[in-house]
């Protein structure tokens, strides 16, 4: 399938504005029904970590997947926003001194630098719990069974067997808990499928869940998401080696300095590029039964490996 990069980027930016507006509303200062209070410093830190930056690729995937089945509007927007809140929480915590110890994120001070470590931990915790509140709320979908599936899927993607588990494997791969040696390719793929791929995969599947798609179509979106997630991480690792900090809005070269094993190390730059191309083809093949309706999702896979930040 052909890719019109400029048209796709326009779509991505337009949807990012909609997501920003949704997040802005969710992270307002006014106390909501069922709440006792919203501490101003905590809200400010949450807003710093979640607003004003990012491509919002995950919620875009949710919306694009829902549109495959003729569904648009508030349901996929809110489901995508919940996924984005989880992603933002993970960045706030990843930047902490105990994790990656980063001072910059999206060209601005990280939350623990703009506020303090304790506030950053609480802001991440609050973003994470807010994500589940949003996903489980009746405003996200009128069908409680759909909300239940969305909430369960998000928990699995974000937790022990997904993103958090992947982060644990990543810390171990740095040698923090003893000598580990060079990771085998299969181990690298498992780590990356958990840490990065699980949430991206669920973002695509969530659109199908919102739309009430059948098991076959959901499986197609999962296959697409897994291939896209793997390609995304390889592209990210290449950017860490080749991009400059100003373009990235954060420090680069830290993975190599920390001794993290990546597929770029295992395959080399040229091999990594070939693997990205293979994964993009795999993602497109998963969507082939949808025909031209899946063009936007195919474009997202191409964008993932072509991005420069």
Automatic annotation (TrEMBL):
Keywords: Isoprene biosynthesis, Magnesium, Metal-binding, Transferase. GO terms for cellular component: cytoplasm. It comes from the Bacteria. PROSITE patterns: POLYPRENYL_SYNTHASE_1, POLYPRENYL_SYNTHASE_2. GO terms for biological process: terpenoid biosynthetic process. Signal peptide: none annotated. Its cofactor is Mg(2+). It holds the Pfam family polyprenyl_synt. Coiled coil: none annotated. PANTHER family: FARNESYL DIPHOSPHATE SYNTHASE. NCBIfam families: FPPsyn. Belongs to the FPP/GGPP synthase family. This is Probable farnesyl diphosphate synthase. The gene is ispA.
